[in-house]
Amino acid sequence: MIVEFTDSVAGVPVYINPVYVVTLRPDPSDPLHVTLVKLRDGETLRVRGDHTEVANKLSETLGVAS
User: Fold this and answer.
1) Domains in the chain: how many in total?
2) Considering the chain, what is the average pLDDT of its residues?
């Protein structure tokens, strides 16, 4: 399942497959509104949303209870 987020820099949609997410954490420059999502291939995306909100959205897609 693919989850849609919004890139915090460009403002365009970003589609993430939760299976490829390695880590996510608050962006130090704006921790309440931007989350850094690191993928298996080493790419890091900055998406709009609090890290808890992003984590919940990703886990719901996988069917994991938060």
Assistant:
1) 1
2) 93
